[in-house]
Design brief:
Alpha-Beta Plaits, alpha/beta, ten-stranded mixed β-sheet, globular, D-Maltodextrin-Binding Protein, domain 2, binds 3-phenylpyruvic acid, single chain
Amino acid sequence: MNVGYLGPKATFTELAVKKVFSGFTPFPFQTIPECMDAVVEGQVDLAVVPLENALEGSVNITLDYLTHVVQIPIVGEVTLPIKQHLMVHPENAENWQQVSRVYSHSHAIAQCYKFLHHHLKGVPFESVSSTAAAAQLVKETPMQNIAAIANELAAEVYGLSIVKRNIHDFDHNHTRFVILATQKNFDFAALSGSTHWKTTLMVTLPSNQAGALHQVLSAFAWRKLDLSKIESRPMKTGIGNYFFIIDLEMKLDDVLIPGAIAELEALGCGVKVLGSYPSVNIGLD
Ligand SMILES: O=C(O)C(=O)Cc1ccccc1
């Protein structure tokens, strides 16, 4: 089986792929939408993309592409600890404090904001498509004293020197990656051995109805359905128009979740199940 992921080699997404898909063929893509398109077009069997970071929140491009553009179910989830390191070309290792620019994925830059502010004050940072793309850029540009924020594997793969380790601002830095597949026979529970399931819903509210969100929440509350996330995202149809992404801490059953969905629909809400999937935590500290 082929697994598409946000590349190039040695991204955090590739680390997630390696943890759960040994024996599969990894297939890097430069952007998250390209990964998802590849599943739709059948170029890969699965895609793994980042969805949410504990420090920085949702990866909006993933959420928006999943909700507005492609119709691919979430079939699994992997959560991984994230350790960010500052790295430069070995030729510039002595002078890293004089770097002229720092490159990384926008989420990685945000996760290290305090470090950048205190240790590289005034140095501009620039976001690129992934942390590994930043490491690759630094490798290919030895004549410029520039740095990347990326993981240990990226330093190894691109031959860079780590000059500061663990520069993420908070210890409990984790990212949720989702697995997307159109194939019905893919069984992540069997592959991962996970018994912990989640269900993700997309809910649109009826327009201009006072108390609608309260009613939505009460449909889950009186059934004692445990919500681990609720987030609003713009509908992209005008200011003030939002939909909600809701994560439930259980597998889609025959009674409780369908009952809640029927109640929401009776209130005039639109509800779409984005997936009901096993969830795996790798090496959480
Ligand atoms: O850029 C990467 O390496 C990714 O896989 C995306 C990402 C960026 C920052 C934290 C976690 C995942």
